[in-house]
Specification:
Layout lengths: L1 E2 L3 E4 L2 E2 L2 H17 L1 H22 L1 E10 L2 E9 L8 E6 L7 E4 L10 H10 L6 E5 L5 H9 L4 E6 L2 H10 L8 E5 L2 H4 L7 E6 L3 H5 L2 H9 L1 E10 L5 H15 L4 E6 L2 E6 L11 E2 L2
Parallel strand pairs: 8-9, 8-11, 9-10, 11-12
Antiparallel strand pairs: 1-4, 2-3, 2-4, 4-5, 5-6, 6-7, 12-14, 13-14, 13-15
Helix pairs in contact: 1-2, 8-9
The structure holds S-adenosylmethionine (SAM).
The site of S-adenosylmethionine (SAM) has 24 residues, from helix 4, strand 9 and helix 6.
Length: 285
């Protein structure tokens, strides 16, 4: 079940009901003491609000929802002086992590995992018709793929029906002819696959794939020799990944399996082409 909570942030200041009551209380107190002090305070407050809104932007919380025992919020960031930076995101409440993010205005860069856009371009992936995304979330990567590659069909596998409904309503409404959602555990989905994909992006909890060698074996079966496979290992410890990395290198070929550090996330990329260095990522293997 989802419920609506409307809250606004100016810059990082959350103007929730408690803060608003406090501000109203202070101004009422000032009004009680003197009308001039009250007017000055109101003018200062209005100038400060306008300044912060214009130059730092505002966050508007659109929805709070629960998916697999975790609360998330959808929020829009609006920066009036630069609409290229306006975005919509899903964030677990009480955490700095971002689950999904798209730019509201059409931009060349992707707001989430721009490294995939860069990898597609550098690998010269052609023809590019079938993509598989394991771990749908708000479907920001499917959104960008559908927008940039109108001929590409995208299968999205997501374990949570709530997340699928959120993605369909708030993120990818206009791409329903290109994006097909599958409400299933990715582990089950890949065992019954007949399609071979040009692009596979794995964005589920990393333990499922690193502790299960069959998973990566099935991924290999679902790919072509020319496919691009991208795996988000989040902030996993590279040392703990060593046996899994060795296994992947034996499956895909030593030179075709590389690891990159992208912010705090480790990303594995399987690709036959020798990918050039990405501007936003550091090659670590
Ligand atoms: C970080 S989000 C994915 C973001 C998404 N790739 C995007 O482009 O916006 C991870 C999602 O994976 C889903 N998930 C986790 N384990 C899964 C599994 N075994 N099978 C399918 N979905 C899974 C979670 O419910 C969550 O919505």
């Amino acid at each position: 079940m989802t419920k609506s909570h409307f809250t606004i942030w100016i810059n990082k200041i959350n103007l929730g009901p408690k803060r608003l009551i406090l501000i109203i209380g202070y101004t009422a107190l000032a009004a009680y003491i003197s009308l001039t002090v009250f007017m000055i305070l109101i003018i200062i407050l209005l100038i400060a609000i306008i300044y912060f809104v214009i130059f730092y932007g505002i966050f508007i919380r659109k929805k709070v929802f629960k998916s697999i025992n975790k609360y998330y919020e959808i929020r829009d960031y609006i920066l009036p002086i630069n609409s290229n930076k306006n975005y919509r995101e899903i964030k677990p409440i009480g955490s700095n992590a971002i689950t999904s993010k798209i730019f509201i205005k059409n931009t060349k860069k992707w707001a989430f995992f721009d490294i995939i856009r860069q990898a597609i371009i550098t690998s010269k992936l052609k023809p590019f018709r079938q993509a598989l995304i394991l771990g749908g979330g708000g479907a920001s990567v499917p959104y960008c793929l559908a927008k940039d590659y109108p001929k590409c069909k995208i299968d999205v596998v997501e374990i949570s029906m709530t997340m699928i409904n959120i993605a369909k309503t708030y993120f990818v409404k206009q791409f329903s002819n290109q994006i097909k959602f599958h409400h299933l555990n990715a582990n089950k989905f890949i065992h019954h696959l007949k399609t071979k994909y040009d692009l596979i992006f794995i964005d589920i909890y990393p333990d499922l794939l690193t502790q299960n060698q069959k998973f990566i074996h099935q991924i290999k079966k679902a790919s072509k020799s020319s496919s691009l496979i991208i795996i988000n290992l989040t902030n996993s410890n590279k040392k703990n990944l060593t046996p899994w990395i060795k296994y992947c290198q034996s499956i895909f070929g030593l030179n075709n399996f590389n690891l990159y550090l992208c912010g705090k996330n480790i990303i594995a990329i399987v690709c036959k082409q020798n990918l050039l260095n990405f501007p936003s990522a550091l090659k670590i293997i």
